[in-house]
Write a structure and sequence with these properties.
It is a single chain. The chain is mostly beta strands. It contains 2 helices and 6 strands, in the order E-H-E-E-E-E-H-E. The longest helix is centred in the N-terminal third of the chain and has 10 residues, at 20-29. The protein is globular. The mean pLDDT is 90.
Length: 98
């Protein structure tokens, strides 16, 4: 089941509990979508790019890059967390570019 928390074009309209560094990354990177998941017991944020052959990048709540579970030329990411979509839970769409 997918939850939708908020869809907006303003990165500062993300829910209050989203870390400010994630909000800043949204403003800087201008992704197509931002998703929140629980992965390995932690809250993580997946930024889906708005164009072709780019990685969807997964960040920790501290804005440390974890991996790229999808995207790129192969669509399979960087290979560092190939089990992400099998293991991730609690998927919530936080933000979507208009």
């Amino acid at each position: 089941m997918v939850s939708i928390a908020l869809i907006t074009c303003n990165p500062y309209d993300l829910p209050e509990d989203v870390p400010s560094c994630i909000k800043n990354l949204v403003k800087k990177k201008e992704p197509l979508e931002v998703w929140q998941y629980t992965f390995d017991g932690e809250i993580v944020y997946l930024m889906v790019p708005d164009c072709c052959d780019q990685y969807s990048t997964l960040y920790s709540a501290d804005c440390d890059r974890i991996c790229a579970p999808s995207g790129g030329f192969t669509g399979k990411g960087d290979g560092q967390c190939s089990d992400f979509f099998l293991q991730a839970k609690d998927q919530i769409l936080l933000w979507k570019k208009e």
